[in-house]
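Example record for the data management plan.
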Amino acid sequence: MGMELRVLGSSSSGNCYILDNGNEALIIEAGIRFIDVKKALDFNIRKVVGCLITHQHNDHAKYAKAMVDCGFHVLALPEVIESKELKGSRVKAIKIGSGYLLGGFRVIPFPAFHDVPCVGYFIKHPDCGSIMFLTDSCQSGYTFSGLNHILMKKEKTKPHSRKLLKNIQNL
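Corresponding structural encoding:
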C-alpha cells in the first residue's frame, strides 16, 4: 500500500501535514483548525497514530490541545508542552536523538535552528521509506543517507538573512 501526503497548510497562517496509507495516519504540526484536520481524514480519526510538533509558534502548535483532547499521542519538545499547557498520558516530551514508535511510523527528532527551541523529524515507514521533515529552519546540522523524501518549509527570509545571502554570493 502507498503513503499519501496531504498538505493542509504550509504558511504563517497555519501548518499541518498528514501522512496516510489508508490504515494509519500521522499528523505533522497542529497549526490549523482541528475541524479541518478531521475533514481531511474523512472524520476517521481512529486511524491517527499520533501528532508531531516541531516548535511552539502558533502556526505549528495552536491546536495541539485539541489533538490531545481527541486522544492522539502528541510528541513535542518540553517547551511546546509547557507553553501550550498540554497534559495527559498521551503527551510525550521528546528527547533529541531518541526513537519513538507511532503505529508503523518510526520517528527520531533532531535539532533544528529557529528563534525558539525547534526540531526536525526523521520519519520511517514501510509504505514510504524514510523522510526528513524540517521547517522554519535555516539549516540541519545532520546528513541523512538513504533518504527517500525530503519535506521542507523554509523560514521567510529576514533582512539580516538577505544580507548574509548577498555577502555569500559576493564571495
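Summary line stored alongside the record: Residues 163-171 have pLDDT under 50 and may be disordered.
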